[in-house]
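Hello Y.,

Per our agreement to keep a running log of every chain we model this quarter, I'm adding this entry. I've kept the format consistent with earlier entries: sequence first, then predicted structure.
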Amino acid sequence: MMTSIASVDSTTSAELAAPGQENLAMRVLGPVAAGLAMLSAFTTFVVLADLTPIAPTHSVVVTLLLANALTVFLLLGIIGREVWMVVQARRRGRAAARLHIRIVALFAVIAAVPAMLVALVASVTLDRGLDRLFSTRTKAIIENSLVVADAYLQEHAQMIRGDIMAMSFDVSRAKPLFDSERERFKQFFSAQARVRGLTAAVIINKDTSVIERAEISSDQPIPLPDAPGLSTVTESDPQIGMLLNVNAVAAVIKLHGYDNAYLSILRPLDPRVVSQLRETQATVSDFANIQERRFGVQLAFGLMYTVIALAILLSAAWLGLNFANQLVAPIRRLIGAANLVSTGNLHVQVPVQRSEGDLANLGETFNRMTYELRTQRDDIVRARDVMDQRRRFTEAVLAGASAGVIGVDGEGRISLLNRSAEKLIDRLEADAIGHSLVDVVPELTELLTNAQLGLQRLVQGQVTLNRQNRERNLSVRVTTEQSPDALHGYVVTLDDITELVIAQRSSAWADIARRIAHEIKNPLTPIQLSAERLRRKYGKSITEDPAVFIQCTDTIVRQVDDIKRMVDEFSKFARMPKAVMEPEDIADTVRQVVFLMRVGHADIDIDLELTEDPMKARFDRRLISQGLTNIIKNASEAIAAVPQSDRGRGHIRVIASREDTDVTIDVIDNGIGLPKENRNRLLEPYVTTREKGTGLGLAIVGRILEDHGGGIELRDASDKFPGERGAWMRLKFKAETEAAAPSIDAAKADSDASHLDKAKVTSER
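Predicted structure for the entry above:
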């Protein structure tokens, strides 16, 4: 950006007489005084116009006027001093003295004439505008809008008065029910509140303690009157109050037949109407305040405009003096420009006029010099900025990339590591930078060696990383960075394809299971029936080694049953039913599963940690129960697999929790635990560590949780409870919140209430 000529050529008439202190007066005091004048004028305007939190009190107004007066007097002093010096210069016959006076006069006229015209027009416009604002018609419209709003509140007050009178009559009639069957009375009381569209209803005693509260879906609290206020409430004259802060109207009445009991209800108001009412009241209040301050507004406008006009006029005079000095001081301009260049400002350009003779040639030479210096410096700065931008862009891209990226120099040392790569190789960038890649990630040795041989610019492959007892399958690409002259390094890209590999294996096994179930299941029944028929028909007729015959036929039948069971497992895995989402209680589902497992495994302590509140949601109860049952069954079998000498008492913890729609169920046992190697492969079909296991249990559970938008995590019990042995299975899935379906308790309450007052309540519903 070019430095302005005014800053370079800022010499005053005082400098013409004696350079030094006079130059400081024009270059520093002049701009400061002009800036303070404009700032004080603007501050006065915003305060008097009530645009700031500062109230325009008498003391504030006096302070602002004094501040404006000081700035104006400061400008007058500076300009007066400069004019006096110009006059003295003219008397001495110095050059440009007449030009100084003419330019100052021209600027003063240019600033004063428009200011006077604008003041005249603005005064007339403001006065007429205020007349239209405070017209009788405007006042009537504003007052009528307030009357309409008050009428709306009165109408709702009458409506709630009728509701509380009728409801108090019904509640008084139900006093015997209140004394004998409080639960049925509560249901009746809740039904009365819902029928009348109330958001809250309570029965309180004389010290405002709640005796009974209606069960309504709304959780809006009801404001209760104080104890002294209740003493004035009677059975025939309820108290009604408008609670505009909560968009509601409340009422309280004394109940007949009860011992100092009161009924308090709350009915909602339309928030839009309440908002309009507040705006109407505020508008009426603002209108009255503005009407009272009309003269103050006009006075504030006049003062504000006067101060601003004076500030502009005096600033224009100061600019005129400054401009005049620039015209008569080409040498001082050059000196000032040279001083600026010495401080590092290379954007200075001195104006050159041919009439200045040899000084013009000097100015052109100076300008060419600064231009060349500026161009060279700008080229260097731009090149540095481009490199810096590229570096920041590359770092930002790598930081946000889902794939892991590792930069390796020509000697095989790590020079760059993004966040994704840190997670995959389980090393922080600060710990890995400068170390050999093959030392940090030995699994990449072969791929990096192939890249270093230079046979291909891009080397690809798959490796398996085992970090923190978790196995990951990675797709690795090693790209060589080189130029015709030298090798710069390598870029190693890591993509986690673990889930993809598992999905591919599951899909392949599902297809195999489908074929096995189809091809094997059909002949099993004829084989079993044939063996049983042989045993029945020829069992008694065989006299030679009949026990061997019976043992062989029993073996055939038993093995066929085992094959059928395995085929059924294949069929279940291949034909997983689609999850049917229905409103259920997660907590109740977990309790039922734990109860059944406790009955079936009495020798194992199964603890359940669960909140008392229901966890309503939409999910497939049968599939979730099946999955949880399988996990607890696996835990019990893991406990049974512990050697008898180390077993002790079996213990399984089941912990269920929920946050929004995320459900987490932890099953922790003290069994033999999970293998350290290939742990994640246990989720694949037909991978098992048990002697008689089919390897489909965890695969089916994983499929169930995937259908619910979740998954299963395999951990060690020591991660949850340090020092303990066993496995920790975490089941996570999504459960849609049941918002629309009515609760079972509410339905039952409605049913009981209908039996209490069948004719009346049914008709009202």
